[in-house]
Amino acid sequence: MAAQTFRKGISIVHEAIKNTGKGERALYIVGALLILLGWRADAQGWAAGNPYFLGLLDGATGFCFGVPVAGVVIREITRRASQSAERRATVRSVIAQLDYLNRLTGELAPGPPESICDRLRQLAETAGRRCPVPRQLPEKLL
Question: What does each C-alpha distance from 100 to 34, 106, 111, 123 come to in angstroms?
Fold first, then answer.
């Protein structure tokens, strides 16, 4: 169960990365460069003397990683919502069609469904009484 969930999560991440735009990928690269810059500044002691700029560097790094991740999450939520809406529309359509068929068969056969053939025969017989069909065709038609 856990392995299946893990594989599903990996496939979702793979699909999300595949659907990531060039701008989001560029933000990942800039974020990685900002991390390297922060490590370098910390190693040289610059970070201790400039806390304001270190805060700006931290914020920019968070932005570079947070915005693309938020885009991935929003796209996934939107995709699932649209799939759910499609399913609901399909269910509504099927229910409407079944309701129509139910009303149609109710008009044809007011009794149980197995009497539809009998009801059609009765309708044919009553139609035949109203418009009698001659048993023999006139000689003109032969």
Answer: 63, 10, 17, 21
